[in-house]
Amino acid sequence: MKTQIVYIPVLATIALCLIQGTHASQGKGPRGVAPSRIKLYTPSSNGTWRCLDGSNTISSTSINDDYCDCDDGSDEPGTSACGTSYFYCENIGHQPAYIRTSRLNDGVCDSECCDGTDEFNGVTHCPNTCKQTGEVARKERERILKVEKSGGKIRQGYINFGKDAKRKLQLLLDELQEKAERIKQVAMNAKDELDKVNAKQQEYLESSRIEREKARNHQLEPFIEKFKERLTRVLDDKNMLRTTLDMLKEHHNKNYHDLAVKNTISGFDEHLKEIEEKMVSDTEPVKDEDNDSSVERRIVLLQDKIHDVRKDIGKMFRLIKEMKESYNTEYNDEAVLKTIKIFHEFAPSWNDEKDDYESEDSIQIPEEASPSTEASGNERKSTIYDRIQKVAKSVGLGSLFKEEKSGKCRPLVIANSNPVALPLAKAWVVNLRQGTNAVDISSNQLALAQEAHGKALEEERKVQQDIEDAKRKLGMDYGKDEAFAQLADQCFDFKDAEYTYTLCLFGSATQKSHQTTSLGKFSSWIGDNYDTQLYEGGARCWNGPERSVKVAMSCGGKNELVQVSEPNKCEYLFKFRTPALCRLPSDLKDESADAIPEVIMPGTRSEGHAVEKHDEL
After folding, report:
1. φ, ψ (nearest 5 deg) of residue 604
2. Which tens digits make up the pLDDT trace of 544-587?
3. What's the CATH number of domain 481-584, 3.30.160.60, 1.20.1250.20, 2.70.130.10, 3.40.630.30?
């Protein structure tokens, strides 16, 4: 800040002398040059001096002559001639400072120069306030130093915690990886055992299936002949109607031009190709495209064949029926009359609406009841008894076994003359003796093997999850000496008039009012000083980018989120204080509030140690 001061009249000649003076009030070196840089202005033996950027060589008397000779303005550190160089304010009693030479003798007292040396021409009087300003600054440095010392002790604790946690985490990871190898072997052994039990059960189920299939085939064999007889009948009727229509087509009187007859023959021609193809396939034996040789499958194929032939019969039946209802009775066409006669003979046995015969009993196929491997032994026995009894009755055998007073069942004596009885009895014995006991044992073994394998896989999954979590934590960058490790996942709030902001370090940042909005998740540190974090991938703004947060950190006596702002749309700035950024006690042992902080000329590097940032300053 600049302070306007009242001008005091002074002789122009005195002002000129002051302007051209080459020495500052301290009595050595050119005006505006810091003591640490005076050696840079030492003239050569012949009285010349070289610009600091090497752009020119001038007489040493030309330094501060109010004329800019050097490109970098280094020859005018104490005048405003160049305006690009810097003037050193000694500020005795306070901290030295640099200002642009363009601000010299501009009639404004610059606050950076509390000693008033920036207005040295006497036109403007600037009081020396360095004593008062220095005392205020000293008290502030004392306060900051107190915060540093307090925070530094806490930081040391953070470092100890972080290093110890990392060491323990590495040990845990080693243990988990060893455990993972052991569990992997356990899971493999459990899988091998499960495969063996599965194979054993499949072997039993297959042998049981074969026995059941044999019994089922014997049970259904008589029905094959019934369906074959039915197929022969429908094929005969189909061929009869086909022959009749062929006769009509060949021998009807074409001179009559009977429209009904023509329509019938035309309709027959339209279907002829399809009928011919079916006639060819009808002569082929019933085959199973899936190579299933079971009697049950053969019955299904026979049923399908019968159904297709009946549809063809229905088509030809309707062609003749339509002709019968509208042909010209005056023509007395012998072929037509013969066709109608055959139709009348066939019609009573045919149901035109159903494409089926009027009085034909359906063939009922007995069901097969398969005992479940999930059922108990007694339930399976009961199911097997019912099944065998049902099958026996369906083929006219009566009961194959009877239940005694004791509750046990025993087979009845069966006549050897019946070809179905013995296979059924054998199937019953196999199912009853082997099925109930073997399935009980096999199912129990399978359940135990599945349970053991499932537990091993679950434990293996959990250990792998723990390993990934440990690796993730070990890979996290917790700052210098792991100082931020203890703060990981700790959350801090800041409330303003409208929102509550929450920062969970190394986790997420949110904004909450009526609902919670994600501002991003931890992405990385910015720079190498471990004082700025970036959180990205938050909820997308309306017609804007995804929300993100930069967290600017500084030394503080405690962890607290102290300020939130939004410099750009959907880009937030959080200010966070933490002991994790305070200097350690070992770095502060020679620190004093009375020590004047080092000042560095802009554009140059410090020759001393780097000074850490403090937002309190």
Report:
1. -120, 165
2. 899 999 999 999 999 999 999 999 999 999 999 999 999 998 88
3. 2.70.130.10
